[in-house]
Design goal:
alpha+beta; about 30% helix
């Protein structure tokens, strides 16, 4: 399993190892043991279940450009996920996505995780920018991206688009 870990005041973030992604589709108890954390009953959410096979196919070196788990330090519970849609493209851009389980929303966990992961990824040699998208009605996501100092780049296919490069959020 990967040894990459990021810590914030309340979270530990780490790439979801391919073996744990495979286990999540078959045996939650085994996945919990592999991850060293309790799985929230609401995690993983439906959207994540769809991309687990892709994460399960990644090599150890590629896992960091896929799904990362958000572990609440106090409870040692996985409360969400954050990560990238893949490695940087030819321009050095990665796309970010994230989700927090419903009972942990509106506590600043997403903003904390976004700021930490963006700080980390912009230090990677092949990465020059991070982009993200959200629905125009997703007020919480808009606030999260603004707090992490993403700038709005307009709308595409009914989704607000955001970009962050260089200096970014630290809180």
């Amino acid at each position: 399993m990967t040894s990459q870990r990021l810590t914030t005041d309340r979270l530990e973030l780490r790439p979801l190892a391919a073996e744990a992604a495979t286990a999540l589709t078959r045996d939650r108890l085994l996945a919990s043991q592999m991850l060293g954390a309790t799985l929230s009953p609401m995690w993983p959410q439906a959207e994540m279940l769809e991309i687990l096979p892709r994460q399960a196919a990644l090599s150890v070196g590629e896992e960091c450009f896929g799904i990362w788990v958000m572990i609440e330090c106090e409870s040692r519970t996985i409360i969400g996920d954050i990560g990238f849609h893949g490695p940087p493209d030819d321009s050095g851009t990665v796309e970010l996505g994230y989700a927090v389980v419903p009972d942990r929303r509106r506590h600043g966990y997403a903003a904390e995780a976004v700021s930490a992961l963006v700080r980390w990824v912009l230090c990677q040699p092949a990465v020059t920018a991070v982009v993200a998208g959200c629905a125009p009605s997703n007020v919480a996501s808009i606030a999260t991206l603004e707090r992490a100092r993403f700038r709005s780049t307009g709308e595409r296919e009914g989704e607000l688009r955001w970009r962050c490069e260089g200096e970014h959020g630290t809180d």
